[in-house]
Amino acid sequence: MSEKVRVRFAPSPTGGLHLGGVRTVLFNYLFAKQNGGDFILRIEDTDQTRFVPGAEEYIIECLKWCGLNPDEGTEAGGAYGPYRQSERKEIYRKYAEQLVADGKAYYAFDTPEELEEKRAEIPNFQYGHTHRMQLKNSLTLPAEEVKRLLDAGERYVIRINMPSEETIRFDDLIRGEVSFDTTLVDDKVLLKADGMPTYHLAVVVDDYLMKITHAFRGEEWLPSAPVHLLLWRYLGWEEQMPQWAHLPLILKPDGNGKLSKRDGARLGFPVYAMTWTDPATGDVTPGFREIGFLPEAFNNLLAMLGWNDGTDQEIFGIDELIEKFSLERVSKSGAKFDFEKAKWFNAEWIKRLPAERLKPEILTILQKEGIEVSDEDRLLQVIDLVKDRCTLLTDFVAQASYFFRAPQEYDLGAVTPKWNEQKEEFFKSFADSIGSAQNFAAADLEAEFKTLAQEKGFKIGDVMLPFRIMLVGGKFGPTVFDIAVLLGKDETISRINKALQAFK
Ligand code: GLU
Fold it and tell me: CB within 6 Å of ligand 1 — which residues?
């Protein structure tokens, strides 16, 4: 590739970011980095009726969380700004006017009410080649009348003049040749009555002005492609048109249709990258981040939704993805989303990442639960000890909190039915022996525990479970002697004594 690769993610800030949106970011990012190119974030906010406060900030934070940071964009700046389309409003009009002057677009003066009437009158009404000549536009009105209307400041939009019976083709980097019959496409609005461009005009003008070389977006945009292709041609820019890649849909777990926010709610898993609170309704849609996913796992699982490297390998870090990603290996068909598999990725990443890396997230989660962590080095040891038992970062609350505060409650049902004075005696002696021991290492502790159990005639299992419940509160956690060592001598003795009161 001779020219510098430039790709863009161009979201409309209308709400939370669906995992499919983040996968689009990821594939853009991987491709850019693999080719030494630039990744651009452009905010497509020209539809004022769909503007949602906070959505842009959310998108930016989401990219930060995933570590997929743009080289250029609303925050990063760059030579092709502004990167927010509403701030580029003045740029688009001249291209729309140029298209009118070239006969490729026209002014349409029909009021929304008039169009409503047409829709009611004509089944499957489309503003296009079948009906445009019966409507109120610069193709049907005399030139003087058009001028008069424009001079009088009448409300109008500019629409593309879609040719009929033409086949438009392009080579999609994922799907190969794609073709469209223009007869089926209506005359899309390019410039709206408020002077704002529609998405169709803005996306083409900006991809051109921002020198975008490759445009990756979701498959749902494929039907818009003929409009965009014609605009590139009509504006005389066909040579510079980016190469397109339409990414496969992410499907519901059963494969029946696109995964939606509603499926998430119905099936009990997140569909958004981060929790989104709708500012209008206050409705909260949960996110992967908040339920305890790591960005490393999230990127990894998104990469595998529609891509693989041709082997059985499933765990990929971002650097390896940059190295191995290829559009040739992106599948044409939709990828089913499997939440259990998503959690598997997370558990794998929790296992693989060093405690130091996990610490910030876990610290925040524990603090949110009101758990004081005064010694962060000790937290690192705790993380190492329990991380193999955690699927979500939020599992650390249950798995780690007892290291920082003594159990408030005990699973008494697991202890008291078989509790007796002999056992109480055993633990009293054990606490004494811990108190006088020179070493407080797991192996010594275990040896002492076993010797004592034997002396008192207990099977090891009879006393092991109560010991665990004394320290942890419940029937879970890593090896109990490791727990005791991390708790320290004094705390272990104190927990034994406290529990002996509760077990009576
Ligand atoms: N603004 C469109 C969106 O919201 C972008 C589609 C494209 O990348 O062309 O997804």
Answer: 10-12, 44, 199, 203, 217, 221
